[in-house]
Amino acid sequence: MNIFIFKDQQELAQEAARLIIEAWEKKPDLVLGLASGRTPLNLYNCLVQAYQEKRIDFSRIRVFGLDEFKGLNHDHPLSFASYFKENLFNLVNLRPENIFLLDGQAKNIESHCQAYEALITQMGGIDIQILGIGLNGHIGFNEPGSSFGSRTRLQILTEETRAAHLAYFQAMGEETPVMALTMGLATILEAKNILLLATGEEKAQIVQEALEGPVTTSVPASCLQWHPSVYVFLDEPASTFLKRKAFYLHCLKLTWPKKYSLRLF
Questions:
Q1: Which residue range forms the structural domain that includes residue 194?
Q2: What is the pTM of this model?
Q3: Which residues does residue 156 pair with via DSSP β-bridges, in sequence order?
């Protein structure tokens, strides 16, 4: 794992954007796996700014969404499709035919998920999969207990995960969904590169468990320890409980600044 610790969320986001821009410079038809939520938001803001400054062109980039709530259509304001439209898609020159998202209202979910996997393969696989991490260690909506061999599928959400979204749905007078479609852990691990973002002290304990603890289905993100090209970007608070923090900072000091050696071909 390549573990980088930044002073704050903004520096983290700027550096994550630089990693993606460097990848795009090498491969203009880059395939990105996109995560939603609070953590990647600053990254998308930085990418939009880079597009406005003509430092990146999205016209050939392909994107895949990581997950989606079951029952929500793409126009629902709390769908991840709406999140991506508002924070990225409508602000850059992504082509509609290059946007692939899970459908929370798919009539045949199993067939839809299989077709989604086939599309990823057809596009040559995901070059960079962006991830956040849940307080219980989930990545995507792969909750604790998810098989490391899991593929894109329908997942029942834990009460902890539902509680994290409760306020948003309550504000609209709606029930928090009990299920979601998500890329599986095996699907995620097939990405050529993985960019894991974590910010805030509330994530510090689970970050330590995922990065330095045993590989276990009780902490789904721990499977990333098996991947050959993982970039972990943390802000200072999220790194609080890392036991090898001094070593990570020493490595960063010796290698910075650097170009990222991503596996793209």
A1: 2-255
A2: 0.97
A3: 179
What residue type is assigned to position 198 of the chain?
Answer: A
Residue 111 lies in a domain: yes
Active site residues: 67, 136, 138, 143
Answer for the pair 134, 161: CB distance below 8 angstroms, yes or no. yes
* pLDDT tens for each residue of the chain, 265 residues long: 999 999 999 999 999 999 999 999 999 999 999 999 999 999 999 999 999 999 999 999 999 999 999 999 999 999 999 999 999 999 999 999 999 999 999 999 999 999 999 999 999 999 999 999 999 999 999 999 999 999 999 999 999 999 999 999 999 999 999 999 999 999 999 999 999 999 999 999 999 999 999 999 999 999 999 999 999 999 999 999 999 999 999 988 888 777 888 999 8
Cα separation, 30 vs 93, in Å, equals 14
Decide if 137 is inside a domain: yes
Q: How far apart are CA 91 and CA 48, in angstroms?
A: 6
Which tokens in the block code for residue 22? 């460097």
Can you tell me the distance from the alpha carbon of 123 to that of 100, in angstroms, rounded to the nearest whole number?
11
Backbone angles phi, psi at 118, to 5 degrees: -65, -40
Contact between 200 and 236 (Cβ < 8 Å): no
Give 100's contacts (C-beta < 8 A, 6+ positions apart). Answer: 62, 63, 64, 65, 116, 119, 120, 123
- Give a yes or no: residue 62 inside a domain: yes
